[in-house]
Write a structure and sequence with these properties.
With about 100 residues, the protein is mainly alpha-helical. It has helices at about 1-10, 10-40, 50-65, 75-95. Helix 2 packs across helix 3 and helix 2 (about 10-40) runs parallel beside helix 4 (about 75-95).
Length: about 100
């Protein structure tokens, strides 16, 4: 069965799928780290559910990983996603305080 799958080209497709999975999962870590450590929040202010700011930051991180053709892109994706989330979140917080 393994030989038949290898002849059919399944391992090549699996590698492509795993690369795409890497590009989309790592920026989530950047958003999560930024949400926990970098964005100022009051007690009990943690949001549950989907966050539009988080989704935009994640999409920018994924686009960065997919756009670049350099080995450092897998590290840069979470960093960019975290920075975008921090900037957007701080802008929203400052806008609400004024």
């Amino acid at each position: 069965l393994g030989s038949v799958l290898a002849v059919a080209g399944i391992p090549g497709k699996l590698i492509g799928f795993l690369s795409l999975l890497t590009a989309t999962v790592l920026p989530i870590a950047g958003v999560m780290i930024a949400a926990w450590w970098l964005v100022p929040q009051r007690d009990g202010d943690h949001q549950r559910g989907w966050s539009g700011t988080g989704l935009v930051a994640w999409a920018v991180g994924v686009a960065t990983v997919l756009w670049m053709d350099h080995p450092v892109r897998d590290v840069l994706g979470p960093v960019v996603a975290g920075l975008v989330f921090t900037l957007l979140s701080r802008r929203v917080v400052v806008g609400q305080l004024q």
